[in-house]
Structure formats: structure tokens, C-alpha cells
Specification:
This protein is mainly alpha-helical. The chain has 13 helices and no strands. The protein has one domain.
């Protein structure tokens, strides 16, 4: 029974994270990319404060790594993503973000000399081809700004790879919810500072926050950054990291469907082909054999 609940939980999680691209685009109609980040992570830091309760303290020597990982994994990642979604579609954004497992494997191979089975390297190669198709095919229908947006989304994917590598030693030492709390707090405070520097609050009008925008800000905060993480960690504890990671391939499926149904987006043929290539590539990367990586050097930064 628990296994079925875990499978349901991870599918719901991927749906929330897939929907987040559409919700971000709608929120960007009323707020700047930095303001969206502030609302999302300012509120979620408060949410985690009450949910996590008593938190394990962080050792002094781990604070530099925790802080750097938090800055890369939240402010940098979401600045790239939110700004990128100002120029590109939810469909393209979700498909590009889906390459994170492949990019992580590629970083391990190039930087840390990790060795992987040939089919996983083929998966990385296919993912890269798919991303290039997505990035440049959209320009013919949406203009050159879409290329900039897609490149920024790719920047967010690379940021998440750095975050994974930096965070790995911390995940082996601290509970996941403890790390999420502190890094969400770092993200929320960083976005607060960035929004003051940006200086766009003077032009903000409460009337911009209509029901639709408020709904999607709530989705981003309560579902995508709140419930989704709780469901994800429950699923991971029951199914293991390999199976859980494989289910994450559903994120671009939900991302594309939501973009089409809610925003009326259309996929160019080359984008569709690129997306299919990405999904096939990520399937190869995240097959069960991924736990059998032979490492020649440390896997972390």
C-alpha cells in the first residue's frame, strides 16, 4: 500500500513541478522575476519554519558550503529561470530543465573523471542535441528573444547541477528538511535584498494582483515549493533514489501539457522532436544502472 502511495506522491510532485513553469509565466504578468522569487521563497521560508519545527543546528565549518549551495540553488537558479520564462515558453523551459540529470552526468565525466556505461553517455549526447533543437527552433516562430530565454533556462539547469554537487556532502550529514529550511531562508533573504536593489516596488500596484496571479503565486509557494518537497522525500524514502529520479522524466510532459492547455502555447515540429529526443536521452541517463557509477575522483565540489 505504501508503495502505491509513494508512486502517487511522486506523480503528483512531477505534476506540480511541471505546472510551475506556467504559474511562473502568469505571475510574471504582475511582478518582476526577482519579485516572483521573493514572494515564492519568502513565504515558503515561513512555511518551512512552522513545518520543520525544531531544526538540527548546522556545524560552523559547513556554513560556507550551505550558504554557497543555497545561493546557487535558489537565487541564481530562479533568477535564470524566471527571467528566462519572460522570453520563452513554459513548454521549452520545462523540456530544457529536464536535461539536468544528463548535465550532472556530463559534469561528473568531464570534471570529476567519473566513468559511466556507454548507454548513459549516449543519453547525454541525445539530450544535448534535443536542447539545441529546442533553443534554436523556437526563434523562427517566437523571435530571437526566445533564444535568449532558452539560454537563460539552460543557465538555470547548469546552476542546479552545481547545487547538486555542492549540496551532496550536506545531504549525507543533515536531514533533507533541515537543508531545505535553511536554504529556503537564504533564498528568501537574498531575493529580498535583490528586490530592494532592483527598485521596482515603487512601480508596483496591488491592483496588478488579480485572482489569477494570486492563485498561481499560491501554487508556486504552497504546492511547488511546499507540498511537492514533502511528497518527493516520502516517495524517495519508499521507492529509492533511482526509481524516484526516473519518474521526474514526467515533469516536461506536465510542463508542455499545461503550457498548451492554460497558455495556449504551440509546439513547433522541431521543438516536439527536440523534446522527444531529450526525454529519450534522460531515460537512458536515469536507468537503474546509474547507481553503479565508478568514480575516479570525488563526486562533489
Amino acid at each position: 500500500m505504501k508503495r502505491y502511495l509513494a508512486i502517487t506522491a511522486i506523480i503528483i510532485t512531477t505534476a506540480f513541478w511541471g505546472v510551475s513553469y506556467t504559474s511562473t509565466i502568469i505571475a510574471l504578468g504582475a511582478l518582476s522575476p526577482v519579485q516572483v522569487g521573493l514572494v515564492r521563497f519568502g513565504l515558503v521560508a515561513i512555511l518551512w519554519h512552522f513545518l520543520v519545527g525544531k531544526r538540527k543546528s548546522i556545524e560552523k565549518k559547513d556554513w560556507p558550503r550551505l550558504f554557497l549551495a543555497g545561493m546557487i540553488g535558489i537565487p541564481l537558479y530562479y533568477c535564470f529561470e524566471n527571467i528566462g520564462l519572460s522570453y520563452t515558453s513554459a513548454s521549452s523551459g520545462s523540456l530544457i530543465i529536464a536535461t539536468i540529470p544528463g548535465l550532472n552526468l556530463l559534469a561528473g565525466r568531464i570534471i570529476w573523471k567519473e566513468r559511466y556505461p556507454a548507454f548513459q553517455l549516449l543519453g547525454v549526447f541525445l539530450s544535448i542535441i534535443g536542447v539545441f533543437l529546442i533553443i534554436f527552433s523556437q526563434a523562427s516562430t517566437a523571435g530571437e528573444d526566445s533564444i535568449l530565454g532558452n539560454i537563460l533556462i539552460l543557465g538555470s539547469a547548469l546552476s542546479w547541477v552545481a547545487f547538486i554537487r555542492l549540496n551532496q556532502p550536506l545531504t549525507e550529514k543533515y536531514a533533507s528538511l533541515t537543508l531545505i529550511y535553511w536554504q529556503s531562508l537564504i533564498g528568501g533573504l537574498s531575493f529580498a535584498l535583490f528586490s530592494l536593489i532592483e527598485g521596482k516596488w515603487a512601480n508596483f500596484h496591488v491592483s496588478n494582483l488579480n485572482g489569477e496571479v494570486i492563485l498561481h503565486l499560491a501554487i508556486l509557494t504552497l504546492l511547488c515549493s511546499g507540498a511537492a518537497y514533502l511528497f518527493y522525500f516520502f516517495a524517495q524514502s519508499e521507492l529509492g533514489p533511482t526509481v524516484t529520479t526516473t519518474y521526474l522524466n514526467l515533469i516536461p510532459v506536465f510542463g508542455v501539457l499545461t503550457g498548451i492547455l492554460v497558455l495556449g502555447e504551440e509546439l513547433a515540429f522541431a521543438q516536439l522532436i527536440g523534446g522527444l529526443i531529450v526525454i529519450i536521452g534522460i531515460y537512458l541517463v536515469t536507468k537503474e544502472h546509474q547507481n553503479k557509477v565508478i568514480r575516479d575522483a570525488s563526486k562533489t565540489i
